[in-house]
Amino acid sequence: MRVALITITLAAALLAPTAAAPPPGLLPAGTFAIVPGDSSAAFFVPDNRGGFSGRRPGSPDA
Amino acid sequence: MTVTQTNDGYIAQVAAVINARSLTTHVGIRDAAMRSTYLRTDRFPTIAFEGTTSAHPGLALRPFPATVQGRLTLRDVTREERFSATVTALSHEYLADVTTSIKMAEYGIPYPRAFIFVARDPVTVTLHIVARSP
Q1: What are the CA-CA distances from residue B19 to residues B13, B22, B24, B103, B118 (Å)?
Q2: A50 contacts on B by Cβ (under 8 Å)
Q3: Whether pLDDT at B48 is above 70
């Protein structure tokens, strides 16, 4: 009987859905600044001949 | 960008500005038309976004999805936009990748045309954003 109870308790714990709330402090919080030199922005405009692309200069893959 | 933890996830207040005059398509005559006629950068020199990003990253051991919602200002039009991002959390920085589309017509931008070329919607926008703790 005791073994069965322990087994049920363990099973319930293992099968329970993961709690939605993340552990405190798991991800960095506070203020962050976007780094323009490491960030990139690009766009593609379709047209009747295939389209053209553009970007913000300074993007790493520019 | 300011990141705070909530009861069930994380939320970030985001503000970003792009210098519209700096955008290039690597074709001088097209860039000139884009700036003068379509984006009208003399009057509207920046493209701005202000909004929030929310996510439920779990243990965040891998990149996780986030929802970005806010106000995008392009030329003299501000519209509510909503798109998805993939976020990677590192010890002192966040990386975010976004691919979304916007419609020129919704921002009052005439469809660019030159010779036999006539552009149309939607414009696909791809962003890779690195935000670092100072």
Answers
A1: 20, 5, 11, 19, 25
A2: none
A3: yes
Instruction: Count residue pairs from A and B with Cβ separation < 8 A.
Output: 134
Q: Report pTM.
A: 0.82
pLDDT tens per residue across span B98-120: 999 999 999 999 999 988 899 99
Here the CATH number for the domain that contains residue B62 is 2.40.128.110
| Domain hosting residue B122, numbered range | 2-132
The answer to whether the Cβ–Cβ distance between A43 and B4 falls below 8 Å is no
Task: Give residue B28's Cα distance to chain centre.
Answer: 24
The complex scores an ipTM of 0.91
A28–B56 CB contact, under 8 Å:
no
Total domain count, chain B = 1
